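Note to self: keep these together.
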Amino acid sequence: MPGGGASSGSAALVATGEVDLAVGGDQGGSVRIPASFTGIVGHKPTFGLVPYTGAFPIEQTIDHLGPMTRTVADAARMLDVMAGVDGYDSRQPTVLAPAGHLAALERGGAGLRIGVVAEGFDSPVSVPGVDAAVRAAVDALSAAGLSAEEVSIPWHRDAMAVWNVIATEGAAYQMIDGNGYGMGAFGLYDPELIAHYARGRLERGSELSKTVKLVGLSGRYTYELGGGRYYAMARNLSYELRAAYDDALSTYDVLVMPTLPYVARELPPSDVPLAGYLDTALSMIGNTAPFDVTGHPACSVPAGLVEGLPVGMMVVGKRFDDATVLRVANAHEQLVGGFPAPRSEASATRCPPGKGGRPV
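Structure:
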C-alpha cells in the first residue's frame, strides 16, 4: 500500500509509533494525504506561518511545512514551536501574532459554524463510504454543539486546474532548472544543497521518480507553448480562487470535506501506461491541492474506517486562523475518544531505559 506521497515516510513513522512527531512538506497535499491514508493528524499551516528555511523548495508560492502527529494536541503543540518569523524566508510576512494554538484547544468547539463544501464530495473517483464517514463525523459535531450546513463553492471544482499549471510550470522552472531555489527571490540560499542536487540531476536524472519526470515534462511543455503566459494566468486566477473560499469563510468558521476521495490503494503496476500513472498520482488531490494555492490552513484528522482502512476529514479555515481549524479537529477527536494507538513490532518491544526489558 502507498503511504501517500512525499511525506509518507514521516506518516509511517508516526503511525507505527516509531516517532511521536514528524515534519512534512506540502505542495499539493503531501502532509494531509499520507495522514489520511495512515490514520494520523496532518496539518498544513497557513502559507507563511511556518518558515520553509532549510527544506528543499519545489515551488516558492506553494511550499508549506507542517506537523504530522498522532493527536491534535500534539499538532498544536508542535505548531506553536514551528510558527513564527525567522527573518530568512521571503514567503513569510514581516510580523506574525504570537502562537497560541495549544491554548486555543481549551476553548472547545461549541458554537463554531461549519460549512460542508458540496463540491468536495462525490467526485468521479469518490468511494461512497468515504463521503459517508465524513458526513457522519460532521453530524456528530453538530450534535455536540457546533452548527453545520452545506455550502456551494463552484470554484472548488476548477481549483485543480489552477494548481496544475502553477505546480508543473513552477516546479519545472524552480525545482528542476533552478535546482530547487531558482533565482530572484529574497531569503537564505543553500549553495551546497543546490550544487549537490544539480550534480545528481545531471548525472542520475534517470533515477527521478516517474511522477517527478512527468511533472517536469508537463511543465516544460506548457512553458514552451505559452512562454510563461499560462503560469501568469494561473497565478492571477489564484486570487479569485482565494476570494471564493474567503467569501464562504465570512459566513462559516471552517469548511469541511473529505481529505481524499478514497482510502489507500495498491500502487499501480510498473508497466502501467504513463498517462495512467500520472492520473493515479493526481486523482487524489482535488481537495488538498487548492489550499496550497490559496494558502488557507487545512488539517486532516481521522474520521473512521472504510474496508478497514483510515479515512481523513479535512478542516479548512481562514488564513492565519489555524487555531480555529485545530479546535474543530480536536472537538472531533474528543468525541470519538481519540484515535487508535499505533502498534508495531518495534513499538511493542521497545523498552525505556532502566526498565529491564519490559515491553511498553
